[in-house]
Amino acid sequence: MNDQSYVLVIDDEMEVGTFFRRLLERKGYRVKVAASGAEAVRALDEQQYQVAMVDLKLPDANGLSLLQEIKNRQPGCEVIIMTGYSTTKTAVKAIQLGAFDYIDKPFEDIAEVEDLIDKACDYGKSLQHGAGTQPEWFNTAAKAGFLVGGTAKMFKMVSIADKIAKKNINVLIQGETGTGKEVLARFIHAASNRSDMLFIPVNCGAFPENLLESELFGHEKGAFTGASSQRRGIFELADRGTLFLDEIGEASLSIQVKLLRVLETGEFLRVGGEKTIHTDVRIVAATNIDLEQAVRDKLFREDLFYRLDVVRFELPPLRERREDIPLLVKHFLKRNSEFADKEPPQVSGETMRLLMEYSWPGNIRELANTIDQAVALCDGPVILPNHLSDKIMNSLFPQNNWQTADINAADNVPANTINGQLQNLLDHREGLVSMSPEELLIAHRLVRAIDSAIGEAIDTRKLPRPEPPALQEVEARAIRDALSYHRGNVTSASRSLGIGRNTLYRKMKEYNIDLN
């Protein structure tokens, strides 16, 4: 470590300051010890620090306030919070406010302390040099199948989850149905020190009470009718791993009592058993209901709630992260194509616009099912609006038949306006056939010029243009126009398009274009 790396230790216990000075100076760090918040502020005025070790409880300052003070004065200084187990919730709050991480006192693993300080120092320097644009958790999320997206809210939540994952504390995940609670739980397991052990999910709402108890804790032979042999439960199987309790709010009060005992003691009994079994399981629980309200309604035990709610994450519904929809669509299309062993279709601009506008009450799960259904209905290279479900289309066009919504939108245009004259021409298109060749060609050039002029007017007024068509749609239209212009002569059409005859034939087949 070079001699330009400075560490500020803020703790009112002299022994802690002495410990860090001896530990870090032999590694090349410059160490300043402050016994109070006032001393720390003076130190910040005198020197730039790469890392600050901050005790949450100081005689004259609040650790969280001091964290904010450090970040305001020296944004490049990474802060590590020192805390006791009883203040874990406050430590998590510190991470939300910008702390690099937190570490429990007393320090049991000196190597862990050294490693954490080194990482904080390196991380701060990488940011100063413009590196580290890809978060540390990126590969872990990819392996866990967790598509985080690009919203700041999701990035912040996953960054915190990555740090919390390495702590041996329970996690509660709240979110609407279909928001991806199990995927987040799998990410937490993959980022934890238990990643090489089992991750076992169980839906507490999917079992009757007696079966859920047997599922969780196992049973002895003869414990109940049908128990023909001894069976180990999930708590036993998940020892040293992670147990994901989905829909925890659906567990009965008697099951809640047994869960509380395991969380408090790490011990349980099989159904019908007398031998105490020890287990070391990390609990990640999830719910789509308000557990705090359930506690007030006496439907959920308050003591169990606080045991589970050490750290809480709230997954936003899809309607609050619409900008992630194109990325999610691309992911589901790719996944679908891998199953079918073929190239994924594209999504037309209008279809994507509709997907972006829909409210998605079923969240990501509903989006995934929608894409699967659209792919099954699509027999060409592009997913069009008519491949979407009636539920989505009827939601977006409640007053109209959605299949003719684009035409109905132009109805009742006053006839004495420009738009009215254009609408009249469209309504009487059969009259175009009787126009002379010269008139038709002039009309065609005028329509194209009008289209260009309207586009320029829309841009000048900074109005939103209609979604552009997919590349495949443009390509198919160009091929049809070229064949029409050259009266079906493939050689001439391919020459004007700048592609080979074989390529043109292949694309005609791909887009279902014939010469008739």
From TrEMBL:
SMART domains documented for this protein: AAA, REC
Response regulatory domain boundaries: 6-120
One MF term in the entry's GO annotations: sequence-specific DNA binding
Domain (Sigma-54 factor interaction): residue spans on this chain: 147-376
GO process terms (BP): phosphorelay signal transduction system; regulation of DNA-templated transcription
Chain positions with 4-aspartylphosphate modification: 55
Role according to the record: May play the central regulatory role in sporulation. It may be an element of the effector pathway responsible for the activation of sporulation genes in response to nutritional stress. Spo0A may act in concert with spo0H (a sigma factor) to control the expression of some genes that are critical to the sporulation process.
Name of this chain's protein: Stage 0 sporulation protein A homolog
